[in-house]
Design brief:
Layout (H helix, E strand, L loop, with lengths): L2 H13 L4 E5 L5 E6 L6 E2 L7 E5 L8 E4 L4 E6 L20 H16 L5 E9 L7 H11 L4 E7 L3 E7 L2 E6 L2 E12 L10 H18 L3 E6 L3 E5 L2 E12 L6 H8 L7 E2 L1 H11 L10 E12 L13 E11 L3 E5 L2 E10 L5 H16 L4
Antiparallel strand pairs: 1-2, 1-8, 2-6, 3-5, 4-5, 4-16, 7-15, 7-19, 8-9, 9-18, 10-11, 10-17, 11-14, 12-14, 13-14, 16-17, 18-19
Helix pairs in contact: 2-7
The structure holds the ligand C=C(O[C@H]1C=CC=C(C(=O)O)[C@@H]1O)C(=O)O.
The site of the ligand C=C(O[C@H]1C=CC=C(C(=O)O)[C@@H]1O)C(=O)O has 17 residues, from strand 7, strand 11 and strand 19.
Length: about 375
Amino acid sequence: MTSEVFFEQIQHQLDKHLPFVAYRKPGEILVNAMLQPTDDVFTVDDYSEKGFVFAPFDSTKAAILIPLEHSKGISCQNPQIIKNNKSHTKYQALDLDREQHLVLVQKGVDAIKAGLFQKVVLSRIEKTEHTITNPIEVFNALLHHYPSAFVYCWYHPQIGFWLGATPETLIHVEGSRFKTMALAGTQKFLGTDKVVWQHKEKEEQQFVTDFIVNSLKPFANNLAISEVETIKAGNLLHLKTSISGTLNLKNTDFKQVLLALHPTPAVCGLPKEASKRFILKHEPYQREFYTGFLGELNVQLKTNRNTNRRNVENNAYASIKNVSNLFVNLRCMQILNKKTGIYVGGGITKDSNPEAEWQETVAKADVMKKVLQ
Ligand SMILES: C=C(O[C@H]1C=CC=C(C(=O)O)[C@@H]1O)C(=O)O
């Protein structure tokens, strides 16, 4: 499908107030969309469902599904840049609530020093006066600015309109094999990824690696853990450890794996329950789907077992694999009444400096602001 027709179809869906998701996986050129013909709200029950899941931070709340069987799939390769004909007004930040964030971070540091937990991720919403008249153009701009991110726009008339470009995989499962990552620690990209990391960032990232490895141990075999590396995500650098292995899902199900993982200390804290309670009590707003997860759930992938054989019989060796591609909902914004709310946070440890943590959220907000200017 041409990109013109593709974008027309999702625009039409939005005009009719019908749910859809459009997304592109990291490093790929194919942009997919799933268009739901009714405005029903489908939810995930046990994660055996097939479709696109959009799950909130608070896992006691419902995860929304655009079911494969109740939607139409469309796709296009490498979409053209849509010319910006005033999809939005000039960016104007409102309510840069620095004081409130400094107080929140200090509370987090005090709670850590009092022994309540070791790490907590504290966040804020940056509401802007920015008027978005064409969110689909913003999605198109995200696709062009962030080729190595998972870029999406998600809409349900009864729930909201979200857009994002996240660098973080929650889990990728293909058959019984899985891959995930521990992503944490942030500094601004200033032209090189050969940078020095401080103890604070190394420690906050190590908390995430240890948590993921320990959470997956009951479900996984052959765990492989990479060295820590520096990766670039937009205007930022992060520390990343890759973790992979095979899932042993005989006596358990995918839901248990997700409940064990989500929310990781990259977005919540350590220990999970104590830090989550602190977040829900002290953050002065509702995260909703920010730091939740989203992506393809139990879609089918056809693969050839023996790619060396180029004959027709090869088809006999084709196998169907169950694939899930789930990402953490970071570097995202919500559009409400044509205004934007950008969601940003950062990991707090005993060594956190409130002013530096504020600056980190300012840098993270730039990822979304870049497409709003
Ligand atoms: C919580 C966010 O980022 C997480 C992912 C990478 C680095 C992070 C950090 O350095 O604090 C956070 O753990 C966010 O972007 O809002």
